[in-house]
Amino acid sequence: MSDKIDEGLRSELQKQGIWVTSMQDLYNWGRKNSIWPLQFGLACCAIEMIATAASRYDLARFGGEVFRPSPRQADLMIVAGTVTKKMAPQIVRLYNQMPDPKYVIAMGACAISGGPFKQGYNVLKGIDRYIPVDVYIPGCPPRPEALLHAFMELQRKIDEQKLTGTNKASHLDSAQPSEFPVPAFGAHDLEPSLNSDVFHPPEIERA
Amino acid sequence: MESLEEIKARAEAVVPDAKIEIVLNPGPANQPSLLLEALSALRVARFLHDDPALRLDFCSNATGVDWLDRKVKTTRKVKKLVEGEEKEVDETTEESVPGYLEAVYHLYSMSHKHGPVIIRSRTVNRADDVHLPSLTPVWRSAEMQEREIFDLYGIHFDGHPDLRRILMWDEFVDHPMRKDYVEPDDYEYEPTPHDEVLERAKEHYPARPELEQLTPRE
Amino acid sequence: MSVGFQELAAAPPPMTSRLEGELLEISMGPQHPSTHGVFRMNVALEGEIVRKLKPVFGYLHRNHEKIGENTSYLGSMPYTDRLDYFCSMTNNWAYALSVEKLAGIEVPERAEYLRVILAELTRLQNHASLLGFLLSDMGAWGTPLMYAFREREKILDLFESLSGSRMMCDFMRFGGCRVDASEEWLGRARKIAEAFPKFLDEFEQLILSNEIVIMRTQHVGKLSAELAINAGITGPMLRASGVNYDIRKVDGYGIYPRFKFRVPLGDHGDCYDRLMMRSLEMRESLAILKQAFAEIPAGPITNPKVKIRAFKPPVGEAYGRIEGPKGELGFYLISDGSASPYRYRVRPPSFINLTILEDLCLGHTVADVMVILGSIDIVMGEVDR
After folding, report:
1. What is the distance in angstroms between the Cα of A84 and the nearest Cα belonging to chain C?
2. pLDDT by residue (tens digit) across B141-153?
3. Is A51's CB within 8 Å of C153's CB?
4. pTM for this model (two decimals)
5. Cβ neighbours of B99 (radius 10 Å)
């Protein structure tokens, strides 16, 4: 809960039947408990995603039950599976079509960095080359529990998003882009091969 | 099922100008194949399909193979004069075989439940003369597989109903499964690359001579 | 001129003939709710009737064959898991069979029995999932899928306790299997196989006797036997058209000749026959499992003469195939004596079964296209490799 309200005061008020919160907490609470994922499975990780939504691992407990086929109605895109260069423009288009606020989970090693198929002429080495990713789930395929953990991480991230101030959430900040340019098919590779505004690989010391 | 020699003899009887060779397959698999010529391949294929004893109506697999220019060593027994006597000696000759592209078909029979009969056809070279007849009029299962061979190897199949790229996008220019295909350089290099990946990584990242003098920990 | 009521009733004016117009081209996919993966069909419609259909592939082309050329023989085994990601055990078996043919390796008895048990368990969960997916394509919104996945989870638990991973098992080796199955595992597997017929009865009664399923799948997507043979269709789709060709019986690979099982055949070749085929094959798989559990001997699980590191088969080529749950899965390997194959080719059943998709869909409505596509049973990991 917000740190501006004194906890003692809050519990006293609750005993009287008055519930105090802030706009930010209420807004984030509503959004994080009803995330609608986009039904977007590419490869093997999609089956683990379906298994997570099935009865044993039950994603519905977390509010993520309603998988929407249309990007216009979804707010979470779980990129599950290998992203190929042929599919990459469609993924960026789908991301652009999703309304704000939108989140991306990169599920599986292939979506993070190309995975076991990294050595490939048609494999995009990670979806974070073109669109911003919020949560990464390693694994090949990650277990359904890992996807649930990622979902909870995303809920925690949404909970901490601010509505005002300099660090406010990107969907409320008109300076932040919400649509990204779609790559085109070139003669040998996608053009451009990566989007340098979005892609920030970690700097690694090379010995 | 009859042996490959018998099939070859009967095929050459039915299709008079066909030149068929038997390509032996060393190794335990024991799957030799028939090498067909481009001009007569379609007629031989139709014979294999229609012949009542063979009835090879199921084309299971159509593959493309890329053979680069290579040197082949053959060892033959040759009669030579050694110290005044004629003896049989092993003579090893090395000949260079120019490269070609090849299409291999595995044929089975669903009505007689026998097989496989493997047929191959080779292009003249890897550069400009890469035409082969399409066997899609005989076996429809070759339709999409020949498109894939065209896409990934570049063999042009004459007589194919719809020859265009199938797995790569239409604007793509290269033929990726060829042995001399160079991939686009779009990696982000891992922390510990080695061999040729290390060489390519060095081009992307500036050299840091102070790190190269670090001594390994004992 | 006014027309009296009697005249109108006597001879009603003719209905206008069909509206002439242009064909509407739509693109179904690559992102659509039917979870067969990233597959796209360019469909030209006249009203609701399909006039042309061109499938577009390649959205999951992960150049598996090129990786195979640069990896050692054993190193390609995990990649075969990811071909048909529902059935990793049978993919592994097909690859191991091809390499064993290439190098002339023999497999001990217990390993053969274990391979059969795992392959038939894979077939069970694959066919159950297919029925679940097809019904959710038809609009059942996931409930049959939940039933199917409930059974699938039990079988995946078995796979996980044996091989360490639910889906990507990487279990077969050249000359046997990786890990031996304990008596306790065999007991658990036997219990699951014994409880399966009860689920199957309930599932069949709910799905295959359902009026909507019957109306939507019968007489839809009829495939004749001649076209099926000529187009290289294999697997349950071929047998639904009445052709008796099951590679387990024809080639008799492994120890399948020892098991008594029937090969179900269909009469009409429509979508309903293909669904029934899966259900009947599940029953035959249960029969095979029962015999295998009873007969499995003790013994070694691998062939000790096979080198694991630096495995170099002799020069030559081989084509090995098995009856996978989706059709004939074959591997064509050309070896040049080195540690990685010169040519590594996968013969994908789903890809070749899609050859006649256009023929099956012409003249049907758009809604039938999804039913036909679902009954073919494709997995994009295998189609695009």
Report:
1. 6
2. 999 999 999 999 9
3. yes
4. 0.89
5. 17
